[in-house]
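QUALITY CONTROL LOG
STEP: pairwise intake check
CHECKER ROLE: data steward
CRITERIA: each record must contain a sequence immediately followed by its structure tokens, with no blank fields

ENTRY 1 OF 2
RESULT FIELD BELOW
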Amino acid sequence: MSQELTYEQAKSRLEEVIIKLEDKELPLDDMVTLWEEGERLAAVCQERLTSARARLEAVRPTQTESE
């Protein structure tokens, strides 16, 4: 499922997870589950950013082409 998320969706959900993790009353098991979800969401965000960067680099003229 997380691979189908857009960058914006994953980032938004990651922000929600972080807010929940800041709750000092959260049971340890829930905290671990949220942490794991956060790790997956962070990976999705990183993947989307890396992909976008690669796409931009592919269409950007190289230094020698622009001279």
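ENTRY 2 OF 2
RESULT FIELD BELOW
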Amino acid sequence: MIEVISVKFKNRGKCYFFAPNGLQVRNGEKVIVETAKGLEIADCCHGNHMAEDTAVVQPLRNVVRIATVDDLRVEEINKKREKEALVICAKKIEEHGLDMKLVDVECNFEGNKTTFFFTSNGRVDFRELVKDLAGVFRNRIELRQIGVRDETKMLGGIGICGRPYCCSQFLDDFQPVSTKMAKVQSLSLNPAKISGACGRLMCCLRYEQAAYEDLVKKVPKQGAFVETIDGYGTAVQVNLLRQTVKVRLDSDNDDSLHLYKANELCAVPGGRPKDGETPPHVLNYVPEEPEEEIEETDPWAVPSMVVPEIKEESREGARSSRSDRNRRRRKKNGERSGEKSAEKASAEKSGAKKGEKTEVRPERVSDGGKKPQRGDKPGKATVKPVKIEAKSENAEAKTEKNESPRSRSRRRRPRGGKPKTDAAE
């Protein structure tokens, strides 16, 4: 790991690493750095940070200093010179009748070199133009031919997406883009819709190409002969992002389409078989198990908002359980009172007095009054109630009083008179 800072020249294009040389540089500050062309002023896009040794191109050049007030004044002078040079060079091109389009002009920080960038469809002989420009500016003149993409990168602008051009904002280098990418992504092949301001295919077509290539492997192509869970058919429409395919089944008499997921069908290798041949079975479909719905709880929910609802529910549950218990208790009391009233009514009918208990005992009597013999079927039995009178508590007390004194005085007294007490002993 090595400590570096990242800078951009004219705040566009690629980021370059420079050694901070003991300086603490913050984002957005202007610094003077040492380059192969001499001293240049640049914008710091990322302050002091660590970078991998493999990401740094050696030898790593140093930061000379943080831009001072004089350095910023020199930068303003160079910008004015660039605007003047752009106008003068455009007039010289018209005078010489050259087939070239002037794009931009750059004056280095030291002021001893001026670079002109232009585009052209072919080679241009600009030797006479260079001589005229050198006589006007009295310094070193360089004319550099660039492509249309570099032109858009320098000029900048807003794309159809509403954002600044990717090439002028963050792209380090240009990568090849082909119409196959637009075809795989099911985009319109109209050049006006998939081309950028430079007239070339948009760089953003390459961003999702890897994801689309992976999705294409999971679904059959449009027009392929496929086997579905309902039979064989032809893939009519494919949606890569949703991974669904519309199929026209061979078993259907009409032209109705059926929608299937990617795992519910499979392309038959070799295409549609000839007449009389049976297509091979290639589909191995396993139905997906429904996922269990898990209720997600909000960890940031305020407990006080939930507690009152729980309390009301518990109160309602307690009230309902209490009412159920009271209802059962009333029911039991009603049954007991009903049993007591039934006993009283039966006692009144039987003529029993107060305090007497009645009991009904079943008595089995067979038909004919004969005991059944072995092998004979037992006859029908009838149950007759037998009244048993129970003595009341008052009658039991009277009987205890009326007991004969003999039963009490049957104990034999010892001879010799009265029995001795403990005190006499």
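INTAKE CHECK: passed for both entries
DESCRIPTIVE NOTE, ENTRY 2: The first strand starts at residue 2 and ends at 8.
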